[in-house]
């Protein structure tokens, strides 16, 4: 697939096969993800792989749709509020790079924001000075949903003089 096909076809997966995903592949996609733009090369992301015990304590309502791999992506705060916001934006780019790299090789992801809840931050052991950008299920899709209709981009564009 070329990059446009990858972007247009990627979906948030809500049903995974039980087939394992190679950690070597996941590490490769994380390496690719680290090429994300990040202001002043802060590389603010950290990845916490979640084992069965922690996964049970998180008590996600769908158990991450049966994904064989689950991890959290954290973003380190910066020295200023602006740097903290830039770091979160860079980490979101890191996540999108990961999602697209995995999808290009037939592996899907499910992105949950459950890491922003204080109880879940404690379960994950998130230190002060970090935000949880998301908790992700990763695996081979059991099914792929049809795309949801999007607002035409022309309705989202403004031209300033």
From TrEMBL:
Put simply, this protein is called: Nitroreductase
The organism sits in which domain of life? Bacteria
Q: Which residues form a coiled coil?
A: none
Every Nitroreductase domain range:
57-140
- Report the Pfam families cross-referenced here: Nitroreductase
Single GO MF annotation: oxidoreductase activity
Q: Which InterPro entries match?
A: NAD(P)H_nitroreductase, Nitroreductase, Nitroreductase-like
Q: Which residues cross the membrane?
A: none
